[in-house]
Amino acid sequence: MLTAGRKSMWRSQYQLALDGAQVAEWDPKVWKTGGRFTLDGQDFEVRAHGWGSTFSMTDGQGTVLAEAQRVGRKNWTVQAGDVAYEFQRVSIWRNDQDLMRDGVPVGTIRQTSSWSGSLEADLPGLALPVQIFIVGIMITWWNSQAAAAA
After folding, report:
1. What is the average pLDDT value for the chain, to the nearest integer?
2. How are beta strands 21-28 and 54-59 bridged, if at all?
3. Using CA atoms, how far apart are residues 97 and 138, in angstroms rounded to an integer?
4. What spatial distance separates the first Cα and last Cα of the chain, rounded to whole Å?
5. CA distances to 2, 32, 49, 73, 143 from 128, in Å
6. I need a labelling partner for 12 at 20 to 30 A (CA). Which of 6, 30, 98, 133 fits?
7. 3-state secondary structure string, 69-92?
8. Residue 31: burial class (beta carbons within 10 Å; 0-12, 13-18, 19+)
9. Cβ contact 72:53 at 8 Å
10. What's this model's pTM, rounded to 2 decimal places?
11. Which residues are CB-neighbours of 55 under 8 A, at least 6 positions away?
């Protein structure tokens, strides 16, 4: 399970841990939507496009590795290479997301604390950079929702 929690209340960075072992830090952009992370010495950047419902992840050379479409809608997708992953918001009252396969939930992303912004993701079968991309999108999207509500 991949977990994300703020480094401190005064910083916007998140520590990402896989099964309890820290693997990366999510560093959100200050003036733009998205962020970046380094995993096993490789840099990745996540950018939002349009109105913040489309995201892409690139490596250090600028190659697009994954794209997310319709983020924030009831149903949205992530394309990573030749594989498309479908997600569905669980309820209009909650921000939890299910990873769907053939109409059946096989994984989840859920906010464990709306106050601190912590979350956990159980996304079996997805490569770790793609999991971090999705978690970064959720952090970005949930934070922008909180800012709009304030």
Report:
1. 89
2. unpaired
3. 9
4. 31
5. 9, 24, 23, 24, 22
6. 98
7. ECCCCCEEEEEECCEEEEEEEEEC
8. exposed
9. yes
10. 0.90
11. 34, 46, 47, 48, 49, 67, 68, 71, 133, 137, 140
CB distance 57 to 129 below 8 Å? yes
Q: Locate the domains of the chain by residue range.
A: 2-149
**CA distance to 8, 12, 132, 144, per residue, from 139 (Å):** 15, 10, 10, 9
R_g of the chain, CA atoms, integer Å: 14
Largest CA distance in the chain: 42
98-134 pLDDT per residue, tens: 999 999 999 999 988 766 678 999 999 999 999 999 9
